[in-house]
Amino acid sequence: MKKVIITGITGQDGSYLAEFLLSKNYRVYGMVRRSSTENFERIEHIKDKIEFYHADLLDFSSLVEMIDEIRPDEVYNLAAQSFVPTSWKQPILTGEFTALGVTRILEAIKLIDKKIKFYQASSSEMFGKVLEIPQKETTPFYPRSPYGVSKVYGHFITVNYRESYDIFACSGILFNHESPRRGREFVTRKITEGVAKIKLGMTDKLYLGNLDAKRDWGYAGDYVKAMYLMLQQEKASDYVIATGETHSVKEFVQLAFERVSLDYKDFVVIDKTLFRPAEVDQLVGDYSKAKRILGWEPTVSFKELVNMMVDSDLEKLKNNG
Ligand code: NAP
Ligand code: G4F
């Protein structure tokens, strides 16, 4: 049985990746940081099948001990401060988690066993003020937030440990991916939960920022399969994972309200405080390398994704009510 460590297992992607690797018969170890209350909402249904290990991206010795005790075949580093607006409020902490945290894990792997395979959760935010459309593996980076800058560091330190120490280390450059398990502060989930609350009469306003920003949105359940496929190849490399389509926040809002037969113009209020100091205006990825080498393709369309998230939030709120 292959052993795997997933950092960030309590997050959206961690939950889908854990499910997927359990279905592949992996022994799954979830790295969690200590907290006064358990934060297992997304993995409640599989938590009995996961072995949890307390460690923190900020604490090098805890990472060394974890890797030494478990001796995994693969490590997926999904843990990060992942919310872009917070990265302007806490830029130093974001750098510690999202940038230096990657070096701490890679260094632990280097010290203990260079044969451990490593996946780094890189991001399309690295392309920021895009220098090419669509963005691919060779597109230069121009990050627009402390989060994006930290991810560029994480990406290049992964490439550097591969080239310096021959570690099988891959950087997955994933474009936005969403699901019913998406954190509530990200725009897609904020919209679908807001729409569900409005439909059920629990509120009558949805406050949003920049509706003109465009993103390449896919389904998280599809994207974790690409992470796994990257580590099963003969050669380590970096891959863009995307849908190849771009849509504005406004289009997402329109479709989400249409799903419940309402007009968004009656409910959406623009709140200027939600605009960012520097915006990423448009992202769209070219996933042809992943298709060619990994045989990977997205399976959920934009409309299906919106509908899935609205339906799930309606269901959750009805059940809670
Ligand atoms: P998420 O839901 O915000 O989950 C982040 C995870 O990181 C949580 O499990 C969190 O644990 C953990 N974490 C944060 N700081 C930590 C620390 N110091 N030590 C240990 N664990 C820590 O993020 P996600 O959407 O699943 O994304 C997964 C990864 O992919 C992130 O690195 C993100 O930046 C990257 N990414 C995401 C997307 C996307 O569209 N979702 C796209 C590209 C890249 P707690 O539960 O304890 O907070
Ligand atoms: O949903 P968002 O907060 O995601 P963002 O900034 O694109 O970052 C996500 O995707 C990245 C991949 O490209 C990941 F690396 C990162 O970890 C995260 O998962 O915002 C999307 C867009 C932005 O342009 C923002 O300005 O939506 C716009 N927006 C408009 N109103 C809003 C809101 N964003 C949020 N969070 N809240 C709003 O009210």
User: What profile does the largest beta sheet have?
Assistant: 7 strands, parallel
Walk across the major sheet and give the strand order: 3-2-1-4-5-6-11
Mean pLDDT: 98
The CATH C-level name of the largest domain is Alpha Beta
The quaternary structure here is single chain
N-to-C order of helices and strands: EHEEHEHHEHEEHEEEHEEHEHH
Radius of gyration: 19 Å
What can be said about this structure in brief?
This protein is α/β, with parallel strands linked by helices and 321 residues long.
Highlighted features:
321 residues, alpha/beta, Rossmann fold, UDP-galactose 4-epimerase, domain 1, 7-stranded parallel β-sheet, two-stranded parallel sheet, 10 helices, globular, binds NADP nicotinamide-adenine-dinucleotide phosphate, binds ligand G4F
